[in-house]
Design brief:
about 325 residues, alpha+beta, 6-stranded antiparallel sheet, two-stranded antiparallel ribbon, 13 helices
Length: about 325
């Protein structure tokens, strides 16, 4: 158990991935605590180590990504691996069912919070939910007629026509395509996720957008919406294979304790390698997230191309 700015982070040693010993776990946790952050540097890195002649499996590669994101971006909480399930037989061993195992229900945002803070592996099916939004949007029921007419938006949109239009544009998974989902910290997931969800601050988000853009100049163009973040952070990426930026909604704030400075970045499985290649390239070239400092000095040192532009424009240049 570690404390960070009044927040307790639970880490379950017995459920750590194979290859991560108790000694390594405790050593990594102690290092992170001494450093004064929950970047968890090195907590799960040993789990990804493979003999030189044995290539990593897809799951092990994802586990390594989870460890490296924690360390390189100094994340406060674990990236979340999410896999959609067609039936209960696909639930990984050891996953917790809220209703069956705990006698309780969670909103999806609460499930995200538990996984990213405590490291619990959760499986969520319709009977485990306690909020209507994901039940509709994840395709667990047919969308109610009044929902399609705008009832889900009416509390926040005064115009009846506007509420109906907004509801009609919400991304929904097809009814019955999936029966549930399993969620785990990326660094110890025993499955290959369909998408990875990362809670981050704006600076970390900026760096991840840099990483994603590095190879091909791709930009993330999300529709920012202040409600239904459990939908926007999951469904569009599944439907379109796109990275998404999401604003945590009031439910995530009130019920799941999201931080005032937190945003959500979602990366579907098909984009994960390109994204992580960018993260590694920035780290390799000395431009990783930790390399950026703050400077409030006038006439700061300009890069050469700045100076060339200023010269062409007839502006002052460094003396």
């Amino acid at each position: 158990m570690m404390a960070y700015k009044g927040e307790t982070i639970m880490c379950t040693i017995k459920s750590a991935p194979q290859g991560l010993t108790r000694r390594n776990f405790v050593a990594g946790a102690a290092a992170a605590a001494v450093a004064g952050s929950t970047g968890f540097a090195g907590i799960a890195h040993a789990a990804a180590a493979q003999p030189p002649d044995q290539p990593a499996t897809p799951v092990e590669t994802m586990n390594t990504y989870g460890s490296d994101l924690l360390n390189m971006l100094v994340l406060r909480t674990y990236p979340i691996a999410i896999k959609m399930l067609k039936n209960e037989s696909e639930i990984p061993k050891g996953a917790v069912r809220p209703k069956k195992d705990l006698g309780t229900h969670y909103a999806a945002c609460q499930a995200f919070g538990i996984v990213r803070r405590r490291g619990t592996v959760l499986a969520m099916f319709i009977e485990d939910h306690w909020c209507f939004e994901p039940i509709i949007a994840y395709g667990l029921v047919e969308p109610p007629k009044d929902f399609l007419e705008g009832s889900g938006s009416a509390f926040f949109v005064q115009s009846k026509e506007g509420a109906k239009e907004r509801s009609s544009k919400i991304a929904l998974l097809p009814r019955g395509k999936y029966a549930g989902m399993v969620l785990a910290p990326l660094h110890k997931a025993s499955f290959s996720p369909d998408l990875t969800m990362i809670y981050c601050n704006p600076s970390q988000l900026r760096h991840m957008l840099f990483a994603y853009m590095l190879k091909n100049g791709q930009r993330v163009t999300s529709t920012l919406d202040p409600i239904w973040s459990c939908v926007h952070s999951v469904v569009p990426s599944l439907l379109n294979g796109t990275c998404e930026v999401t604003v945590p909604d009031p439910g995530d704030f009130e019920r799941a304790a999201v931080g005032d400075d937190e945003m959500i970045f979602t990366v579907p499985a098909g984009n994960m390698k390109e994204f992580m290649d960018g993260v590694y390239q920035y780290e390799k070239t000395g431009r990783g997230y930790r390399s950026y400092g703050r400077e409030l000095q006038g006439d700061f040192r300009q890069p050469p191309f700045y100076q060339q532009y200023f010269k062409e424009w007839g502006l002052d240049t460094p003396k």
